């Protein structure tokens, strides 16, 4: 009988889930729609049916021990999703309480997706031997999970670790959160695109990026252009790395991590992003930390990092 | 027989110490010189003699259980003072190891002064019921102690919690640490003085502060002037509160404290500093935190807050 947990990653479009053993091996995985369901109870009913189907297809004997969930605006303390702008369900969703109706016997834990990624990194990724580190997810927005002395920082209300909303510029760019000048408006797949559009307005130099509309341009196209020495794209990475580097230096001054891991779409630019970020981070670090904080790419596989993270959250809970 | 610990606060000029019981009552306290001793071993020999003298003067029977020390650039993990710019002893001082030669039977712990203040606040002050909070000390510099889930954040190398060296301005004011634009160059007793001098250069309005040299002006004089409606002084508090408020908002995004406590010389300005800091902090907070983070003055008595903090560190260690 193999002990397993169920890891669930709630995304705006799809919800992915997997049956994961303690070594991070995925016995079976699948996904279902998120945005098709305007009613949360309907969504949950379907998700439960899909999970049951998935479990039935596993041939070896398993014993499910718990469920871990990563979700946007997920609150660990309350097991809720609260006012998530990218989901159909408004207000406060009592996710774990409602899921308990289907699975009353297993511990069910939920946190935000970046926190889940941090726990995944600790259990299965590059932070296995680390007790103090930060994971930054660079997708549509910028998420963060902060680990101190082996534990994720949840803070007073379960919502700690929102580096995406630290302040880059007074009266700066509009952020989806309603504030001006947040880090994620500058550093994220969307943020670098906004920087490219600003540069195209300011500079007169040629760039292949001038052929794309705002709606069609992706951070991947910006990376590809930078690899071909496109000056606008290269400058956008330099600026993005500077902005991120300075705020990471500030985050280091808070919790002094051993390493910071970058994950997500924009992180796939690799060296293009890492090099300037590391340079500016070091330049802006309190001297006693300088040269001593590692900046690394996550070594979780992008495709299922979030599901792995959610499962790691469940394993972590079971250790308590 | 009453259980007590010895709390020691190493300052640039004086070293204060006290014999403290578990309720924070000081049975006896005294101080000795720090800067008179260029040789650390000589300093320690004298400190030991002074402590012994102090203990002998306590009439009731006591049992000493441990020693806690707060020191600039103190490292909890190693029990060292490392390259403290305001002390005579260069390089790395193995403080706890050397003190153990005098007191081999008691646990001896050391941390930086702001961390000690945070533990003092938790044990004897306004954070008694709190598990997540931050203490900011506003003296010559800006120190910080960050508590997460009831424990002080030491980070990977024991040097976490250096909010004084987060980045306010690119190529900004010179900081004692060698970096440019650090928070403590703007927000501290010295920082507000620098702001006053900048304002006196920029504005032509009358101010009583124009009568003082840089060497004689103190943050207390600036508070006094502000209370008398001096425009330069009032603007200096507004700017100082703005700068601090923004960086506190960023610190909240890291660890989501229940409250932030201000302590030290500049904090004695009270409402003059609290009001603009709170206003700008809230304005720059991620909306889900807005209005929910308390900004408070420490309720430890200024005179012996550091000694109390050091003793609390020792009590905390004994609980482990």
Overview of this protein structure:
2 copies of one chain form a homodimer. Chain A is of the alpha/beta class. Chain A folds into 2 domains: 2-123 and 304-319, Nucleotidyltransferase, domain 5 (2-Layer Sandwich); 129-299, Nucleotidyltransferase, domain 5 (2-Layer Sandwich). Chain A has helices at residues 40-56, 95-100, 113-124, 189-202, 219-227, 231-255, 271-283, 305-319; strands at 2-10, 14-21, 26-33, 62-71, 74-75, 80-82, 92-93, 108-112, 133-138, 142-148, 151-152, 259-263, 294-297. In chain A, a hairpin with a 3-residue loop joins strand 9 (133-138) and strand 10. In chain A, helix 3 (113-124) packs across helix 8 (305-319), helix 5 (219-227) packs across helix 6 (231-255) and helix 6 (231-255) packs across helix 7 (271-283). The longest helix of chain A has 25 residues, at 231-255. The relative contact order of chain A is 0.15. The model of chain A has no long low-confidence stretch (mean pLDDT 95). The interface between A and B is large, with 43 and 43 residues.
Q: Shape of chain A, please?
A: globular
| Secondary structural class of chain A | alpha/beta
Radius of gyration of chain A: 20 Å
- Considering residues with a beta carbon less than 8 A from a beta carbon on another chain, report the largest interface and each chain's count: A-B, 43 and 43 residues
**Number of helical segments of chain A?**
8
Q: What is the CATH C-level name of the largest domain in chain A?
A: Alpha Beta
Give the overall average pLDDT of chain A: 95
Distance between the termini of chain A: 22 Å
Oligomerization category of the chains in this entry: homodimer
Could you say what the CATH architecture of the largest domain in chain A is?
Answer: 2-Layer Sandwich
| Biggest sheet layout of chain A | 5 strands, mixed
**Which strand-content bin applies to the residues of chain A?**
15-25%
CATH level-four homologous superfamily name of the largest domain in chain A: ATPase, nucleotide binding domain
In total, how many domains does the architecture of chain A comprise?
Answer: 2
Number of E-type strands of chain A: 13
Helix content range of chain A: 25-40%
Order of helices and strands of chain A: EEEHEEEEHEHEEEHHHEHEH
- Main β-sheet, spatial strand arrangement of chain A: 3-2-1-4-8
The CATH topology label of the largest domain in chain A is Nucleotidyltransferase, domain 5
Residue stretches of chain A low in confidence (pLDDT < 50, at least 5 long) are: none
